[in-house]
Known about the structure:
Blueprint: H1 15-24, E1 31-34, E2 41-44, H2 53-63, H3 70-81, H4 87-94, H5 98-107, E3 111-114, E4 121-124
Antiparallel strand pairs: 1-2, 3-4
Helix pairs in contact: 4-5
Amino acid sequence: xFKEIDLSEKQGTGITxxxxxxxxxxxxxxxxxxxxxxxxxxxxxxxxxxxxxxxxVAQSDALSERTFTKMEESIIRAIKQNPHITRAQIAExxxxxxxxxxxxxxxxxxxxxxxxxxxxxxxxQMDKNADA
Length: 132
């Protein structure tokens, strides 16, 4: 629709990423609504049942003193949702290279990988006294 009225360069460039990410984190498929005249498009993206608002608020309080880029926020969110996620899986979800993810995680000094490469997990260790 946006392509037709010259508001986007390509058709459907972000939809595939959104659908893949929603499926990966267990969220339901988005709901699209429009009318026959196609004067609007409404989309509803629902949180998955396991989403714990209180846990996410508590965890985000410690991180709220620092401003993050969208990429950093996406990396943190992916790790919170799945501490066993690999760098390659994060890269695929975000549509960037694994090397980019490795560089960004290195910059986020409060994110640490604990354990072996096969059975380890990510930990986010940041308190209000940490400098990051």
